[in-house]
Amino acid sequence: MMDNLRAASNSVVLKVILALIMLSFVLTGVGSYLGGSSNNFAAEVNGQEIDRGKFEQSVSNERNRLQQQLGEQFSQLAANEGYMKQMRQQVLNRMINELLLDQYAAKIGLAISDDQVKLAIQSSPEFATNGQFDNAKFRELLNRFMIPPEQYAEMMRKQLLTEQLLSAFAGSNFALPAEVESTIALIHQQRDVRLANIDMKALAAQKDAVPTEQQVKEFYEKNKSRFTAPESVKVNYIEVDAASLADSLNVSDEEIADFYDKNKPMFVQKPRSDYSIIVLAKESDAKDVLAQLKNGADFAALAKEKSIDKDSAAKGGDIGWLEAEAVPDEIAAVKLSEKGQLSDVIHSDMGYLVVRLNDTQAAKEKPLADVKQEITQNLLQNKSYEKYEDLQTQLGDGAASNHLSLEGAEKASGLKSVTTGWFTHDNIPKELSYPEISKAVFGGDLFGVKGAPGQNSDVITVDGDRAFVLRIAEHRPESQIAFEDVSADITDLLKRQNVIKMAHEQANKLLADLNAGKGDEALKAANVKFGDKQEITRLSDNAQLVQNVFALALPKDGQPVYGVSADKNNDVVLVALDAVHAGKLDAEQTKGFSANLIKQDSNIILDALIDNLRQQAKIKMGDAIEQQ
Predict the structure, then answer these.
(1) Torsion angle of C-alpha atoms 277, 278, 284, 290, degrees rounded to 10
(2) How far apart, in whole angstroms, are the C-alpha atoms of residue 97 and residue 153?
(3) 453 to each of 412, 418, 423, how far by Cα in Å?
(4) Average model confidence (pLDDT) for the chain?
């Protein structure tokens, strides 16, 4: 229940609003998404503005995506102003690239129609239940990520347009067998090596490895900025969580029935039809398929075999149940009325269609039993947010009545405050790990004079359904760590650096002896010997060793080539490269590699196109990156 409440995905009211937005999209198309502008633009590309509001919405969507992907880790990243500025710049760059591609596509006559967008959405497996387009699932998912349907439609249009551009520029790409074979031989090359470890422990035991006290002090003086204790605080706070409030609330059957009776239009399933389609590139092919269907051929089998629309083909041509407003104009114009009825060949932006009406459903009122849970969730959500708003007011009034304590806020709200342990800007407790709270805690406004406690914060809302009032209980400013407290760590660091330097000197001397043909004696004297053969590829997990091994020249006449590197522990090692073997893959792996090679070439082409468009474009940046 808490997840549904937090996402607000089951709200009856929100669903009705979303349905109206969808209806508006169906009737007016998605062209208005980029329409309109104001003087407050994020960027101007060849005279066309990227609206500041749409940019901020895209930033919000990216935050939501990263939050879903990274979880708690993103909360820590979000508190870093540098990271958030970089994220905002990446979003703006992406929007500029998309607009440049839009402009270029229009210039060369490429376009994605509203019907193509609608059909792509209705054919998306993400929105399907039992192979059928599920409008409720579509709404729920978009609500969860706070994406309006019109915006999602525009995102889909951009994806289809990019695919069309890729097809236009890279659709004929292919990789010659010799090219694939030589690339596999290089990328999957295997090198046989033996490693000889320099005795780092023995070097560490030598007197020369230990830094002098003077060296340790000089390092401290030159690197004082590395030895500072960061600013840290203890915080008292009171939290209100709207989702948790629902657990203490109830909805009666009378309230549910009353809501149902007063809002029956919400619970009417509109008339709808279930269609299947087969999409062909040529009219002659479509006519041939239609003839086969009229002679009794299986529609689903033909769709899977011949349809060029992959999504619907995978489902035997089925595009699911559609309300009248969602049916593409070309299909609606045919006016199929009987179950199993076939259309003639229909020309559309997708190609040539053959459509079958699978079934129809008349409008019907959903019984109370079917929507009881939905209404319950809606009423619980409304009650929770009413209580949540009341508690916010009580917290704010109580905190304002006594700025030097949270006692007033506790009495007014009936909630208890919590005290954290010491924490810094980089390790904020999970329960407080929100950018808004981080900014309030470390912004300085809540600090008292000379370390004394400061005043209470205002009510801070986060995630739309959490609220906090807090105060700084104790504060430690950033301070210099005394030399005595870090001298041992500095000594260890400098000793390690000395040992690595000594090891490299020894390894380079042994390398010179090996190349001069005196290796056996030198290795024996240094008590160093090569181990067993290891197979190293470019995908091996020791990046430094891989880099050094693949930088060595190829062995000749069966004689090894020697070099110096480091192992996973950063210990110095001698390397003997004995043999190099060309990479090989089996037939199935080679096929997949070739496909990836073609795809990579296509992406390179698209990146090159975007780079070229940016070089030629007149781009004027607003101040959206700086303002957060």
Answers:
(1) -70
(2) 18
(3) 22, 16, 16
(4) 82
Which amino acid is it at 453? Answer: P
Q: Is the pTM of this model over 0.70?
A: no
Q: How far apart are CA 7 and CA 262, in angstroms?
A: 25
Query: Under 8 Å CB-to-CB from 5, ≥6 apart: which residues?
Result: 242, 243, 246, 377, 380, 381, 384, 465
For residue 607, is pLDDT > 70?
yes
Q: Whole-angstrom Cα distance, residue 495 to residue 500?
A: 9
Q: What is the spatial distance between Cα 568 and Cα 550, in angstroms, rounded to a whole number?
A: 16
- Digit-coded pLDDT (tens) for 78-132: 767 777 888 888 889 888 988 888 888 888 777 788 888 888 888 887 788 877 7
CA angle 49, 50, 52 (to 5 degrees): 115
- Local confidence band at 397 (pLDDT 50, 70, 90 cut-offs): very high
b (16+ CB within 10 A) / e for 294-303: eeeeebeebb
Tabulate helix, strand, coil % of the chain (nearest 5).
55, 20, 25
Residue of 3, 11, 2, 8 whose CA lies nearest to 371? 11
Task: Specify the higher pLDDT residue, 172 or 32.
Answer: 172
pLDDT of residue 9: 34
- The predicted-structure confidence for 520-557, as pLDDT tens digits, reads as follows 889 998 889 999 999 998 878 788 888 899 889 999 88
For 50-103, what is the HEC assignment?
A: EEHHHHHHHHHHHHHHHHHHHCHHHHHHHCCHHHHHHHHHHHHHHHHHHHHHHH
Q: CB–CB of 440/469 below 8 Å?
A: no
Percent of the chain with pLDDT over 90: 34
Residue 98's closest CA among 623, 618, 606, 622?
A: 606
**Angle at 271 (CA atoms; ends 268, 275), nearest 5 degrees:** 135
Helix (H) or strand (E) holding 44: strand 41-45
Dist CA 399 CA 236 (whole Å): 12
Quick one: which of 197, 53, 258 has its CA closest to 530?
197
Which ranges in 516-572 belong to alpha helices (H)? 519-525, 543-549
Write the CB contacts of 314 (distance below 8 Å, at least 6 apart in sequence): 125, 304
How many of the other CB atoms lie within 10 Å of CB of 114?
Answer: 19
Express each pLDDT in 430-486 by its tens digit: 899 888 899 999 988 898 776 667 899 999 988 777 899 999 998 888 899 999 999
| Interaxial angle between packed helices 135-144 and 12-28, expressed in degrees from 0 to 180 and rounded to the nearest 10 | 100
**Tokens for 237?**
């706070």
Per-residue model confidence (pLDDT) at position 174: 53
Distances (CA, A) of 50 to 90, 131, 268, 538: 14, 38, 40, 43
Q: Strands, E, within 290-439: which ranges?
A: 318-323, 346-348, 351-361, 364-365, 418-419, 423-424
Residue 348 DSSP label: E
CA distance 215 to 210: 10
pLDDT tens track for 20-78: 333 333 323 333 333 333 447 888 999 898 888 888 888 887 877 777 666 666 666 77
Burial of 363 (0-12, 13-18, 19+ CB in 10 A): exposed
> For position 373, what pLDDT does the model report?
82
